[in-house]
Amino acid sequence: MTDEQLLRYSRHILLDEIGIEGQQRLLDSHALLIGAGGLGSPAALYLGAAGVGRLTIVDDDAVDLTNLQRQIAHASSRIGRPKAESARRSVLALNPGVQVRSRVQRADAALLDALAAQADVVLDCSDNFRTRHAVNAACVARRRPLVAGAALGFDAQVSVYDPRDPASPCYACVFPADAAVQEADCATMGVFAPLVGIVGAVQAAEALKLLAGIGRSLAGRLLLLDAREMHWQPLQVQRDPACRVCGPIHSP
Fold it and tell me: What is the mean pLDDT of the chain?
């Protein structure tokens, strides 16, 4: 670690739980972010600022004026530009010492499988049910911890799904792909601007804990947030032995 890095990350290094060794683990790590919108913006900025050495940001959308109410990695001057590239520029402006790769394409199964294999942790910051299940399937197949968040209106949720832990459910255990789900999005339902910042920051915190090897992750717990009351409700969630995604992986 260089003198500049020791100074930049000094407030992490001062924490007994992290120290120089933990910070070095972050610098040696690779995080994959799916989505560079409301959740992906704060998550990417905090991971980059904290010194995660490599970030890969995947998003096929472009910055729109309606995004700027909450998607803090973007700017008015970047309207019409790819979100993944805009987020990359914002992270590098904060910390030019990290490597950031942008992928301006839809996160299909083949891409997710290839990218998950290269990552140490995956953050699902997407905004639709189909992508969330595709991300989960790739993480289970590649045995990569997944930090998943979602936010709409004033309500949000966040959890960790860790296929390395036999007791941890995967996303499909909690939200089966064949369940009746009514898709809704910000364009029709709206979203409270700071809510995505709160959840994206929690996702970054969980990813950093996993990468540094500190604390207890949210695996097995689903946090629900009602921002109207600023009330957090933790729910215990369990692995489904009959899950079509992770069941065979953990079966003896």
Answer: 95
Let me know if 110 is exposed, middle or buried by CB neighbors in 10 A (0-12, 13-18, 19+): exposed
* 186 catalytic per annotation: yes
Q: Which residues of the chain have pLDDT under 70?
A: 180-188, 249-252
pTM exceeds cut of 0.90: yes
Pick the CATH number of 3-250 from 3.40.50.10490, 3.40.50.2000, 3.30.950.30, 3.40.50.720: 3.40.50.720
Amino acid 252: pLDDT: 43
Task: Evaluate whether 95 touches 112 at the Cβ level (below 8 Å).
Answer: no
The active-site residue, picked from 125, 173, 186, 246, is: 186
- Quote the CA–CA distance of 138 and 244 in Å, as a whole number: 13
How do beta strands 121-124 and 146-152 pair? parallel
How far does Cα 133 stand from its chain's mean position?
14
The pLDDT tens digits for 87-126 are 999 999 999 999 999 999 999 999 999 999 999 999 999 9
In the chain the beta strands, taken as DSSP E runs, fall at 30-34, 54-58, 99-103, 121-124, 146-152, 155-161, 221-226, 231-236
